[in-house]
Design goal:
Helix content: 25-40%
Number of strands: 21
Number of helices: 14
CATH architecture of the largest domain: 3-Layer(aba) Sandwich
Oligomer: single chain
CATH topology of the largest domain: Rossmann fold
Shape: globular
Largest sheet: 8 strands, mixed
Mean pLDDT: 85
CATH class of the largest domain: Alpha Beta
């Protein structure tokens, strides 16, 4: 029978209240060596780590090395007589707070998406009801292959969470691109964001939450438009975090190429005017988070046919008009205004100064400000570094994954709404 030692018993730390049980499934890739450092970091934080290794993983990292770091036996075989006498793979699937697959190869992701259970790792993944976090690692062409993209999107629809892959040099000489396993600090933050939700309940249960995400596309003619580089990742993570906390979430999204979060009602729009209409239709709401990067301007009268070159050197003249200010419109509503209105300020210079002006002029309760200049890699990237501005002052948070930023913002909002509700009841 597989038995769990007391949480934190294998570590010198004594923070048992925050210690979690993590089941790490190590896949077969050169990046498996990073899992040794990950195990050490997790145990330093007081977490209990169990490890399952695929047959391929054992070609890169030995079970002996893993066992020495976890102070636990390493599980490798679905048909182990001692373990399976007590249905060991089911116990492993259930006796964890979160399951992490890292590095997750293209093959492992494909078998997960297909619902296979032909080894211990995939049997556990199919039998678990716990959160699953996948950290892909593979050659860039394998990651970009349509089959892998389909498998990833299917897993996201199934509720599986992803971190990475990172972009950079690969083990193969001359190969670079998306496919690197994220570094240990990012992987550690992503793991801990999975169990940041209080076990005793869903603090946003019964609340309606509205989130806007992505860019808007303002047409110039049928084939051209004005837009920006927003990927929608932060907005989508905010919607996912609110859903995990029990909220009834409506996500109004501009054109993006990422999957919609599970358990969220999605309204897809293209233009700022369409987004404003969808936002108004989604009211009332207890919490509204405006993370979309809405275009400030649109062409007054878009051409109904493609604009052709005139033969002269002069480019066509475009007459622009200002788009509706969605944040200001909703924040200044008298009837139907959300209890808490959170806006985003994406700036490239004087971030705090611009954000303070926006907090005052828009009528929002909070402003989340960040530096999206090209040097930061935030717009379209996997990380964010924000400043949270409220009536009480400014907090500057360290850089972290967008998933972790979302969890912290939404948890903070849930606490704020609970405080307001208690005050109203007194």
């Amino acid at each position: 029978m597989i038995k769990s030692p007391p949480l934190g018993s294998s570590s010198g730390l004594t923070n048992l209240a925050s210690a979690k049980r993590i089941l790490l499934l190590i896949g077969g890739g050169i990046a498996a060596y990073k899992c040794l450092d990950l195990i050490r970091r997790l145990r330093e934080r007081g977490h209990h780590v169990r490890v399952v290794m695929t047959k391929a993983a054992q070609q890169f990292v030995t079970p002996l090395s893993v066992a020495a770091l976890t102070n636990e036996r390493v599980f490798t075989d679905l048909f182990d007589l001692d373990d399976e006498r007590e249905i060991g793979h089911i116990r492993l699937a259930r006796d964890a707070d979160v399951i992490v697959a890292a590095p997750a190869t293209a093959d492992l992701i494909a078998r997960m998406a297909g619902g296979h259970a032909d080894d211990l790792a995939t049997a556990i993944l199919l039998a678990t009801d716990k959160p699953v976090l996948v950290a892909p690692a593979m050659n860039p062409r394998m990651w970009l292959n349509p089959a892998t993209r389909r498998n990833v999107e299917q897993l996201k629809r199934d509720g599986v969470h992803f971190v990475g892959p990172a972009v950079g040099e690969m083990a193969e000489r001359g190969e670079a691109g998306p496919g690197r396993l994220v570094e240990v600090p990012e992987l550690l933050a992503a793991i801990e964001s999975q169990f940041a939700i209080p076990a005793e309940g869903k603090p946003l249960a019964g609340c309606r939450v509205l989130v806007t995400s992505g860019p808007t596309h303002e047409p110039i003619d049928p084939v051209r438009y004005i837009a920006n580089r927003s990927s929608g990742k932060q907005g989508h993570e905010l919607a996912a975090a609110a859903a995990r906390l029990g909220a009834d979430v409506t996500l109004v999204s501009g054109p993006v190429s990422i999957a919609a979060p599970q358990g969220v009602h999605v309204v897809r729009v293209s233009t700022a005017e369409e987004m404003l209409g969808a936002v108004k239709a989604a009211l009332p709401a207890d919490l509204a988070i405006f993370a979309a990067a809405v275009a400030d301007w649109r062409v007054s009268t878009p051409n109904t046919s493609k604009i052709k070159k005139s033969g002269s050197d002069a480019p066509p003249e475009l007459t622009l008009t200002e788009n509706p200010d969605i944040l200001k419109t909703i924040a200044q509503l008298r009837k139907g205004r959300p209890t808490l209105v959170v806006g985003f300020a994406a700036e490239t210079n004087d971030v705090l100064a611009h954000a303070k002006k926006k907090l005052k002029s828009k009528g929002a309760d909070w402003i989340v400000a960040n530096d999206v200049s090209s040097r930061t890699g935030i717009m379209g990237g996997e990380h964010n570094a924000i400043h949270l501005l409220t009536s009480e002052g400014t907090e500057s948070w360290p850089e972290m994954s967008k998933a972790e930023v979302a969890t912290k913002i939404v948890t903070r909002a849930a606490n704020h709404l609970a405080t307001l509700k208690r005050a109203a009841a007194e």
